[in-house]
């Protein structure tokens, strides 16, 4: 087996009102909007990418926000919780911060020696903040509302809900993940060196309803490939194993292939290259609507359809200066 992903690349979900989405992820969660673009397959809606200062793989949460999208339903066959990594000493700060922002959060629980705080975004997407006891060395985005000492370091893990675990576990093994631990009906798998950003939990809930992917649910989970030749090799290997994989698609900031794991969740393998600074400077990430070359001729029509999006100062590197 040659496939060996190093961890999560991004998680993509379906949101509602784009302005409300941006305000929550920029101001409440303290992430940076690193790219404002459109859904390349449906350019009548935004595709918003949130992450750290430069949008490194493993820090990214992205959204297709449709203002009038119907609500989804959590259940089997989908990723039901997206977890972010925060410093071990910051869970109490986050509990207070979320409360001040009007976000109802759970009591802090401990699972696998990690403190966990769960809550939902304005569209009902299930999220968690997790403090890993060994820490997380990734540098955070620093804002006045969420200072660096407490800020999100990046993705921690995703939870896949399935009716049975064997086939899903097999697919995760095909991607190079290793079984790490079991806690009741929760099975943990690790990629690469393990730790935050390289974890997936498989939650077995045979009596749960089938999930419905719509507003407030995850659309797909993406895993990292270092470059295009590696991705092409992995795709060929998956095809040889009988997996129904898409062709390699140009997503401008990375290349992608998509397929479903046997439990039903849509997975992606995305390249680390070329990144988000290929069409705008680091200082200006996310400020302007960026379109791929094949959609640029339609810019006027696309902009006429998209709702206005005003970014708060927390997305401006100059606006993070609290001196």
From TrEMBL:
<dbReference type="InterPro" id="IPR004360">
    <property type="entry name" value="Glyas_Fos-R_dOase_dom"/>
</dbReference>
<dbReference type="InterPro" id="IPR029068">
    <property type="entry name" value="Glyas_Bleomycin-R_OHBP_Dase"/>
</dbReference>
<keyword id="KW-0223">Dioxygenase</keyword>
<dbReference type="InterPro" id="IPR052537">
    <property type="entry name" value="Extradiol_RC_dioxygenase"/>
</dbReference>
<feature type="domain" description="VOC">
    <location>
        <begin position="7"/>
        <end position="132"/>
    </location>
</feature>
<dbReference type="InterPro" id="IPR037523">
    <property type="entry name" value="VOC_core"/>
</dbReference>
<feature type="domain" description="VOC">
    <location>
        <begin position="154"/>
        <end position="272"/>
    </location>
</feature>
<keyword id="KW-0560">Oxidoreductase</keyword>
<dbReference type="Pfam" id="PF00903">
    <property type="entry name" value="Glyoxalase"/>
</dbReference>
<protein>
    <submittedName>
        <fullName>Ring-cleaving dioxygenase</fullName>
    </submittedName>
</protein>
<dbReference type="GO" id="GO:0051213">
    <property type="term" value="F:dioxygenase activity"/>
</dbReference>
């Amino acid at each position: 087996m040659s496939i060996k992903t190093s961890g999560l690349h991004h998680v993509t979900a379906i949101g509602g009102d784009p302005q409300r989405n941006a305000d929550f992820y920029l101001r409440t969660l303290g992430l940076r909007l690193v790219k404002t673009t459109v859904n390349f397959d449906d350019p009548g809606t935004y595709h918003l990418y949130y992450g750290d200062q430069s949008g490194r793989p493993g820090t990214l949460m992205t959204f297709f926000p449709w203002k009038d999208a119907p609500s989804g339903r959590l259940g089997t066959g989908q990723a039901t919780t997206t977890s972010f990594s925060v410093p071990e000493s910051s869970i109490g700060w986050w509990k207070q911060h979320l409360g001040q922002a009007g976000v109802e959060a759970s009591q802090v629980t401990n699972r696998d020696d990690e403190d966990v705080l769960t809550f939902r975004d304005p569209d009902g997407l299930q999220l968690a903040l997790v403090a890993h006891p060994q820490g997380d060395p990734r540098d955070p985005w620093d804002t006045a509302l969420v200072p660096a000492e407490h800020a999100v370091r990046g993705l921690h893990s995703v939870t896949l809900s399935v009716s049975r675990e064997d086939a899903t576990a097999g697919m995760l093994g095909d991607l190079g993940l290793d079984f790490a631990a079991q806690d009741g009906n929760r099975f943990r798998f690790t990629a690469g060196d393990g730790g935050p950003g390289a974890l997936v939990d498989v939650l077995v809930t045979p009596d749960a309803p089938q999930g419905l992917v719509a507003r407030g649910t995850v659309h797909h989970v993406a895993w990292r490939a270092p470059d295009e030749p590696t991705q092409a090799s992995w795709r060929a290997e998956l095809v040889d194993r009988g997996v129904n994989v898409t062709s390699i698609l140009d997503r401008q900031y990375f290349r992608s292939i998509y397929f479903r794991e046997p439990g039903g969740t849509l997975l992606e393998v995305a390249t680390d290259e070329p990144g988000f600074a290929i069409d705008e400077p680091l200082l200006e990430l996310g400020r302007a609507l960026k379109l791929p070359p094949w959609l640029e001729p339609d810019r006027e029509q696309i902009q006429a359809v998209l709702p206005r999006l005003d970014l708060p100062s927390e997305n401006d590197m100059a606006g993070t200066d609290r001196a």
